[in-house]
């Protein structure tokens, strides 16, 4: 009996060890767009680079799992997650109520402003509130007053934005009767159209706009109007996972909290955005 118990315990320990090793050997696939600099982009030789590539490597090390980053077009990124083509999304994706209907999100790992960019010689460069910030949740009256102040200059203009994003949703909610909204597959495409004069302005995250303005070929562009956050623009950028994958969500939550606490996210956002975009609260 004692020998049998010893053998049984030995087999159980071996099974647990094998299970643990198998868990560590599992590769977590994380999708990103690969066309949203500096969050994520495709660099020389087709290599994925950017803030979220660096952050994913750090988070996966904390979780103690192997991770593989894969590129996926933005317009199919959530359906492919739910079809189990990969395990998570890190693609500058903001938490919104609409997205929470189909996926789960971790706690945010970054947050920032959204707004317009236009050419420096455009009348739209004088949009109200340039250099200021308004929040649709914390002070909705001030935010909506600012939006109302934009309308006379924006009337009849064409504004480019990436489709199926919080930016396109913002334009649809607040300005669809004022401007013509032109949606693009990537932010890179609307940047080029603004420079070529095919749209009057673009609307995007300030972090993405600043990365564009830093390129010599876009030196004649400028950010215009107040920066906006909250409301339809979401509650910060986070990792998206399938609703039933509570274990992976919990692991990433803990890893993000750790990366915030030890200053890693502050360091990485300073590196890629030249500003601390650590979520507050």
UniProtKB/TrEMBL annotation:
Q: What is the lineage of its organism?
A: Bacteria, Pseudomonadati, Pseudomonadota, Alphaproteobacteria, Hyphomicrobiales
Cellular component terms per the entry's GO annotation: outer membrane-bounded periplasmic space
Name the SUPFAM superfamilies for this protein.
Periplasmic binding protein-like II
Protein's cellular compartments? Periplasm
State the similarity comment: Belongs to the bacterial solute-binding protein 3 family.
- Signal peptide from the UniProt entry: 1-23
Q: Where in this chain does the record put each Solute-binding protein family 3/N-terminal domain?
A: 27-276
Q: What is this protein called?
A: Transporter substrate-binding domain-containing protein
By its UniProt entry, which Pfam families does this protein fall under? SBP_bac_3
Transmembrane stretches, start-end = none
The UniProt keyword set, sorted, is: Periplasm, Signal, Transport
Species: Microvirga brassicacearum
PROSITE patterns according to UniProt: SBP_BACTERIAL_3
